[in-house]
Specification:
single chain; mainly alpha
Length: 66
């Protein structure tokens, strides 16, 4: 019984070690995707038309009567 448990533990430990690098690569791909999305969003928000619309919204909000 003890021998069987030892083999099971060893197999489980080896299986976990094989997947150790996957987590790091998944985080790296997630960060790359997030940075790409942030750059795209920054380009859209700082474009001329969107910038003008945002300024118009802020101007209307500041000139509203209370």
């Amino acid at each position: 019984m003890r021998e069987k448990a030892g083999r099971l533990w060893t197999a489980l430990r080896e299986r976990c070690r094989r997947d150790a690098g996957m987590v790091t690569s998944e985080y790296a791909m997630g960060i790359v995707a997030a940075v790409g999305f942030a750059v795209l969003l920054y380009e859209v928000v700082t474009s001329g038309q969107v910038k003008a619309e945002l300024q118009a919204i802020v101007k209307r909000a500041l000139s509203a009567r209370m």
